[in-house]
Design brief:
CATH topology of the largest domain: Uridine Diphospho-n-acetylenolpyruvylglucosamine Reductase, domain 3
Oligomer: single chain
CATH architecture of the largest domain: 2-Layer Sandwich
Distance between the termini: 7 Å
Strand order of the largest sheet: 15-12-14-13-17-18-16
Number of strands: 18
Number of helices: 17
Helix content: 25-40%
Shape: globular
Structural class: alpha+beta
Strand content: 15-25%
CATH class of the largest domain: Alpha Beta
């Protein structure tokens, strides 16, 4: 089995010459371009690729992969660069494969509620193109991420409580394998019992098994009625218990987001909103007019039992958009609390019955450590995020943040949860993957990696700890 080693300059130069002859000046070694392709959006070290390629077709991706395989050069797929666990960094150099110019919506099959897109299409671009047909794509991780990147990281987001994650909304993929072969994982049918479920294998593989070049997606009809409510609570526990009760009653909420008081204050300052600075739920209801009215009355009754305040409503499109934009800017709002600081962004997910315990214990842990760490959460499915603010020059604070992050993950695992609800493993949670699933299960993953990428050239150093060649 081959292994990723330090690249010989001659091998790298030969690969870059061959790629340049294939795509011309869409290959660059410009330092500033390499810099933007060697980092994500969180507290992980920059690790730059040797070059960045901008293919415009699946055939070009295949040709570049074949060249890199021949010369032993790593390939790191890149979308919008919004990853949070170092997923797009290049620890062993190589070629960053920027897929953002493959940005065509290839087909919209309105009668079948599906579409076909290239990986560089962003979720906002897709929904703009779908709007006139009364359709939308519901997965909304906050950032205007590319669909290819969302597939690779098994993205989730604010709508997951009703519409699921990328896992449930990808019908099929076209993928370039490590030898340059192009495959398609399934047909357009909504279900199939034909062989292994290769689609789900590549969804969430973080670019370590193949390069996604085309995607078939499920679509949904735009609801007849949409309403958004904001409700403050006296305590974190009251807000979370409201969520748990609503989910256990089977109320079909579209979104139910939690913000703690620190995060609400940060959003008010950053987005110029005037929300009550208490633990808060943002709830969105979809359905017919009658269904939305029924859902809202049920949730208002539940909230009142847990000391919830008055519901503030946003029914106009502009009002709803402004509220969700403020929520999506929570990361930047948290960063603005302490100018010059950096954010360690972490997420966990637990069974809904353990959410109250996990969140309240985490809140208390943050207070004990004396840290600034706003919390937001897609709490309808038990998932929440902590924005740990840290001064990178303060060693004591860095260590306190590290300890709290470890305890947070350990707490979630003790509750039969996961170390990452939607950020992926990347370079940031490799040890925790073993803690979660065990050596034997991770060994099976390594064997799959070895079978599909024997030279370990696809996004090396990600997911699996302790090896240059993650397939070895």
């Amino acid at each position: 089995m081959g292994a990723v080693v330090d690249l010989e300059p001659s091998a790298l130069d030969a690969a870059l010459d061959a790629i340049r002859s294939t795509i011309g000046d869409r290959l660059t070694i410009n330092p500033s371009v390499r810099q933007t392709h060697g980092r994500g959006e969180a507290f992980h070290p920059d690790m730059l690729p040797d070059a960045v390629a901008f293919p415009i077709s699946g055939e070009e991706v295949s040709a570049i992969v074949r060249i890199c395989a021949r010369h032993g050069v790593p390939v790191i797929p890149f979308g919008a660069g919004t990853s949070l666990e170092g997923n797009v960094t290049a620890p062993y150099g190589g070629v960053s494969l920027d897929l953002t110019r493959m940005d065509a919506v290839l087909a919209i099959n309105a009668s079948d509620l599906d579409c076909v897109v290239q990986p560089g299409v962003t979720r906002e671009q897709l929904n703009t193109e779908l709007r006139d047909q009364g359709l939308f794509f519901p997965i909304d991780p906050g950032a205007n991420a590319t669909i290819g990147g969302m597939c690779a990281t098994r993205a989730s987001g604010t709508n997951a409580v009703r519409y699921g994650t990328m896992r449930e909304n990808v019908l099929w993929l076209s993928v370039v394998l490590a030898d340059g072969t192009m495959i398609r994982t399934a047909r357009r049918a909504r279900k199939s019992a034909a062989g292994y479920d290769l689609t789900r294998l590549f969804v969430g593989s973080e670019g370590t098994l193949g390069i996604i070049i085309e995607i078939g997606l499920k679509l949904h009809g735009v609801p007849e009625a949409i309403a958004v409510a904001v409700c403050p609570f006296e305590t974190v526990k009251g807000a979370v218990e409201t969520v748990v009760m609503a989910m256990q009653m089977g109320i079909p909420l579209a979104r139910i987001e939690f913000l703690d008081a620190v995060q609400v204050a940060a959003i008010n300052a950053y987005s110029h909103t005037d929300l009550t600075e208490q633990p808060t739920l943002m709830i969105e209801f979809h359905g017919s007019d009658a269904a939305v009215r029924e859902q809202t009355e049920l949730v208002k009754t539940i909230a009142s039992e847990f000391d919830g305040g008055c519901f503030e409503w946003a029914t106009l499109v502009e009002e709803r958009s402004a509220l969700w934009k403020a929520r999506h800017n929570a990361y930047f709002a948290a960063q603005a609390i302490r100018p010059g600081s950096q954010l360690v962004v972490t997420d966990v997910c637990v069974p809904i019955s353990r959410l109250t315990d996990c969140l309240t214990q985490t809140h208390a842990d943050i207070a004990r450590e004396g840290l600034v760490a706003p919390i937001v959460g897609h709490v309808g499915d038990g998932n929440f995020h902590v924005f740990l603010s840290v001064d990178p020059d303060d060693r004591d604070e860095v260590e306190r943040v590290r300890r709290l992050n470890d305890r947070l993950v350990d707490r979630a695992l003790a509750m039969d949860g996961t170390c990452t609800g939607e950020h992926g493993i990347g370079i940031g949670k490799q040890d925790k993957l073993i803690d979660e699933l065990g050596e034997e299960t991770v060994a099976v993953m390594r064997r799959i990696k070895a079978a599909l990428d024997p030279a370990g050239l696809f996004n090396p150093g990600k997911i699996f700890a302790g090896q240059k060649n993650s397939a070895a």
